[in-house]
Write a structure and sequence with these properties.
homotrimer; mainly alpha; 7 helices
Chain lengths: 198, 198, 198
């Protein structure tokens, strides 16, 4: 099992937990929690795969992703108060997922033969659109349109990854640097309240 | 024409009628009624087909589904008051559609070679996500997240179907038993006010 | 470069500008503007392509569409007040885009081998569903369900195009006549306040 796979699963778990927390806050029932958890974790990647024509969508051919989402539902119901207290750890793992989802989305789109700008866009869609669909389903205006340097961090990190791949064949290292870029950008943007309002 | 096809068409008609009633309640115009009727009836199956890569989506290759939706629009405009009075008959046909859409969704997903848990999920998506998309388009929080044992009935019925298929080759009979399971679960859940809040 | 391509790009630009204006009105940030601009311009065609199985979706294989959207974002930020004053020119170009998107959507759907009624529907989806997705993402009830003869103009124009194609091989001329039909219907419907409430 590669480190990429492990971080991908961790990202899925944390994204799903954040979805389930949203569902609980909206007083959804168990089914609602599963759906919102699933959509938050795999919705972005599903949209990317449907758009680029890589179907069945990725998470369907490896059952571990669905089980990870179900685990997230159980963990969140059992340890809700502890999880909501650990905002810092949750945020760390969330940025980890953000970075990994972006890079994997960029890679998958390039592998289909699409261009670099489309790959950057699909990297951001992979990482950010699960949250957009979650917000639409809970009848809220998607958060990323308003307040946060979120998709921007993904696009810049994706750009770093593609640039590094041009000069170096150490893909693992390139991924790590690009992910760290995304994590740092995201962390700094929240800490300093960066925004892109013009 | 098989009994499966007939019930599938009846389910399409009733789902579409319920969509058109929603559109009328929201004071949408004729186009809005057609779109909401269509989305309610074929939206779940379309999402399933796009996710599993079975495109063009099913209803596009058999024009009867589109005609059934248009018939539903005409019937609802002509007989709105009579239809809204017949809540019991409508509910019966609605559960019939729910059962059939679920089983057909499970079958189609298994035929693509995907796993049983994914097939159960796609069965529920086929039956329940038309209503979710309808609710999103009419700017309401999807009902199934809050109050009803709806998707759960689909998943349990799908499980019954798959279990029966392992032991018996009488697929028609297995389908009927699974559909009855979904119909009874759905009927009882509404009658007794079951919910899955934890 | 054909006249069809030029009008398609103009339509993309104008649809994207209208999306960006919506985003600015909702006080979205730059990323929100890009996403809403992109979704308004290419969302309808993307949904059509995913439904009929023509993936990667069209705009991904020709980078000019993405660049046109980015150009729309820049133009709208720079010249917002001038653009919002030119409502008549904007409306003219918007109906031009509406007509072209419809006809191209009808053609693409027929080319996949689907039936005429489905092609008419997909023509309307190509032209009108970008706006629907924009409205969903900005948490508004889609406008086309309520007030405007919009999708209807697309379906009638599509019908004119298909009818002309049966009798004449001058496809360019047929496209122009069909587009003019859509533009005139749309213009008259807005001018006279036509609606389809029954």
């Amino acid at each position: 099992m590669s480190w990429v796979y492990i971080i991908d699963i961790i990202g899925t778990l944390v994204f799903a937990i954040s979805g389930v927390l949203t569902a609980i806050r909206h007083k959804f029932d168990l089914v609602g929690s599963v759906i919102i958890g699933l959509v938050t974790a795999v919705g972005g990647g599903s949209l990317r795969d449907m758009l680029i024509g890589e179907t069945p969508v990725g998470w369907m051919t490896d059952i571990n992703y669905l089980y990870t989402v179900l685990l997230a539902v159980i963990l969140t119901y059992l340890f809700e108060s502890q999880i909501t207290k650990r905002t810092k750890s949750m945020f760390l793992f969330d940025t980890l997922g953000l970075g990994m989802f972006t890079i994997l989305g960029v890679q998958k789109t390039l592998n289909v033969g699409l261009s670099i700008p489309i790959a950057l866009l699909m990297g951001a869609v992979s990482a950010a659109f699960g949250g957009v669909i979650r917000d639409v389903l809970t009848n809220e205006v998607p958060l990323i349109f308003r307040k946060e340097v979120y998709a921007t961090a993904c696009i810049l990190g994706g750009l770093v990854f593609i640039a590094l791949e041009l000069f170096s064949t150490y893909t693992n290292l390139n991924m790590i640097i690009a992910m760290l870029t995304i994590m740092v950008l995201r962390y700094q943007s929240v800490k300093r309240g960066w925004s892109l309002h013009i």
